[in-house]
Design goal:
By secondary structure, the protein is an all-alpha fold. It has a domain of about 60 residues. Helix content is about 65%, strand content about 0%. It has 6 helices and no strands. The chain starts with a helix and ends in a 10-residue tail after the last helix. This is DUF5330 domain-containing protein. InterPro entries: DUF5330 (IPR035220).
Length: about 130
């Protein structure tokens, strides 16, 4: 059955392959025009690309806040009022990447040190013979 399916797929691919040099040139021109149209789409439709960029930015912001809430729930962090949607806090797209990275570091660090070791605890208690 697999061989039959593979044969049908190869037959369909062979039907679309050009059979002469003239058809080959037509295929290359068509592909070239399609690539050119895709590359210059935003030049021709600037308003559309701007609105799509705004929507994509809003979706990315929502995904960022959603992922942060899931992360906080997974690590058991206390719930914080993040604001953002009501204008109290800017969207992530309005924050510089470096400040977002620093904010993440500050949030994951504990409020006070949990290190209970003293210097004496860290020093080795015994050294073998010949150790200086």
């Amino acid at each position: 059955m697999l061989i039959l399916r593979l044969g049908i797929v190869l037959l369909i691919i062979a039907m679309f392959l050009p059979s002469s040099a003239e058809e080959k040139q037509q295929v290359y021109r068509g592909v070239s025009n399609a690539v050119d149209n895709v590359q210059t789409f935003c030049v021709r439709n600037a308003a559309f690309c701007d609105s799509v960029g705004t929507v994509a930015s809003a979706l990315a912001d929502r995904a960022y806040y959603g992922a942060q809430m899931v992360y906080d729930a997974a690590i058991g962090a206390p719930q914080q009022d993040r604001g953002g949607w009501n204008g109290e806090r800017p969207y992530p797209s309005q924050i510089e990447r470096s400040s977002r990275r620093d904010e993440g570091r500050a949030r994951t660090q504990p409020a006070r040190s949990t290190d209970t070791l003293r210097r004496e605890d860290l020093a080795p208690a015994w050294r073998g013979p010949g150790a200086s």
